Amino acid sequence: MGHSVQRVLYATDAAQPAASRPFRRLSPDDLPEGAAEVPIRVFRTRPPYEFGFSPGLWAALRRDIPQADLVTVHSVNLFPQYAAFTTALRAGVPYIVTPHGALDPWLMRNSPLPKRINNALWQRRMLAKASAIHFTTDAEAELAGEITAATPHVIVPNGLDLARFAERRAGESFRRGWLQEYDGPVLLFLGRIARKKGIDLLIRAFAQAAVGRECMLVVAGPDDEDLTPELLATARDAGVEHRVRFVGPVYGEDQLEALGAADVWALTSHTENFGNAVVEAMAAGCPVLVSTEVNLAVQISAAGAGVITGLAVEEIAADIGSLLDDPQRRAALSASGQAFAQRFDWSIVAPQLIEVFQDVAARQRTPRNGR
């Protein structure tokens, strides 16, 4: 079976998650490296922005989906997903839903009312009528539970371009330019600043671990939920405001230098369906500390590729302190983490994903009336 797939991406011009305010439109700088090599069709978002509403996107999907062999619907809850699944259903074109962790019980419990209404009105139907639900880990599939029980599941991890992380950076330019030449141990969180990431837990745990130790916590990433003031207050209340640095988003070379500066990389999420940033950190040689709620945690533990911690502040603090005090253990985790990360390189993952696409697309297309 060949590995040739012709694909076209349809997206809105929203540059941030739909709930972010103020609304910002996509710019060329927001597109990831290599985006120019992929056919991407971007359509203007209109109010209500929080639903990702785009009449132009819907018109294009109605025109183009009937000629497609397969539709992949990424994420849930918003207008683009509604438009894609209803159009595919009416055209009799098979579709796969990749929820990207959005069906995790923690997120479902903490979802605002509009998302719960969407789930009742059309989202359950989208999942039930799909040819398959694509999960990135077994744990993600298990957490989705009865919501997707009637629909076939496929498990294929996320793929990443890991070559850019292969060379371990010294991190000196990051320390010089972002940390005022601080040369002590660095605990790094690098990712989207969001409530689900448990950064408040990490700050409180760091405050306990920092007692009697020279260390700094660096929080790097975009703050789409405007949590930084709240997190700064947490650091201030814990007495470590001067030892916690919020540096904002870091990309490209700055990202690689930040990873190079990290003695320990941490993610204490309440929920994480996969964790691209975890794999990138491991590929860059960072010893990683992740919570049990990161769905890769079981695999990381089995491979001895990182430290798995609970969500109790005291446990996180003890694990941070243990890692900071043990350079030999950090070196061993760096090596095992780099080896573990390689299984998620696109050269390994892409053939798995293409096989799923070809299998689903090969099934006979049956005209449907959308009911």
Output the CATH topology of the largest domain.
Rossmann fold
Distance between the termini: 34 Å
What share of the residues lie within helices? 25-40%
- Runs in which pLDDT lies below 50 for 5 or more consecutive residues are none
Quaternary structure of the protein:
single chain
H-E order = EEHEHEHHEHEHEHEHEHEHEHEHHH
User: Structural class, judged by helices and strands?
Assistant: alpha/beta
Using the coordinates above, name the CATH class of the largest domain: Alpha Beta
- CATH architecture verdict of the largest domain: 3-Layer(aba) Sandwich
Q: Please report which band the strand proportion falls in: under 5%, 5-15%, 15-25%, 25-35%, 35-45% or over 45%.
A: 5-15%
What value does the average pLDDT take?
91
Silhouette: globular
